[in-house]
Amino acid sequence: MKIIAFxxxxxxxxxxxxxxxxxxxxxxxxxxxxxNDYIVPMYSQDLEISEGIPQSxxxxxxKLSEANKLVISVCEYNGNISAFFKNILEWLxxxxxxxxxxxxxxxxxxxxxxxxxQTALAITERTLPYFGAEVVSKVSVKGFNDIFKDGKxxxxxxxxxxxxxxxxxx
Length: 170
Ligand SMILES: Cc1cc2nc3c(=O)[nH]c(=O)nc-3n(C[C@H](O)[C@H](O)[C@H](O)COP(=O)(O)O)c2cc1C
Prior knowledge:
alpha/beta; single chain; two-stranded antiparallel ribbon; Rossmann fold
């Protein structure tokens, strides 16, 4: 079983990238990717008609098709997922509407504040099944900077939740 993991953030210091990188170390056979490595223009129907689907989107779709399990950690911007991540979902869905078919997905979210990006997590939980995904588990991490030290989640209760979530892949 191969797991591909990434954050729905384009920040070079992304806490969600840090979280997802830690989470997959709890299991075997994983690859952490960065969506930033796929340069994708802002979606527009006009652009799609005139230029077609960007090669970068096809490359990302091909990469995702290598795994039947994903771990995605989303950041929250103003009570939503980032425009960066949503834009990539837009393009992927135009390339292949069922791009997450037969994939199990663990979804995570992290924020430095008290909300734990839970709204973005709920939006992600609702959105991914549009593309065929089965969301098998979710964990929200609040106060990230206080409980993530030296690359590890030091809050035992949250760490237990994360271990349980990662073990929910069948
Ligand atoms: C434009 C903007 C809006 C934000 N809105 C929220 C928000 O609604 N809820 C929240 O928990 N954090 C919010 N934050 C703080 C982010 O959680 C924080 O920047 C976090 O580090 C983003 O995740 P990342 O580091 O993985 O990119 C916002 C940050 C920015 C820049």
